[in-house]
Amino acid sequence: MKRIRKGDEVVVIAGRDKGRRGIVLRVVDDRVWIEGIHMVKKHLKPNPNTNTQGGIVEREASLHVSNVMIYNPVEKKPSRIGYRKLGDGRKVRFFRSTGESVDA
Prior knowledge:
CATH architecture of the domain at 9-78: Roll
Oligomer: single chain
Shape: elongated
CATH topology of the domain at 9-78: SH3 type barrels
């Protein structure tokens, strides 16, 4: 089970976008892509086969998962995540600071 998942609201805690909030678009291994965060310019060559136009496009780049923390809406600040097993055997994430469950 991963601490950060797709759809989570996270806060960047290190790097040039430190303090910014965004929604996780995807997670691959230990890298995360966050909507509107860590934008880079990518130079694309035109490809007539796929009908793509060349030029410079701006897109999100990945961040290491250690540079983000999940946002706690109750405290309105980033929080650490813990795991807990429920009575029915499910494993859920919870905020360490408040003890509330992250997953519904």
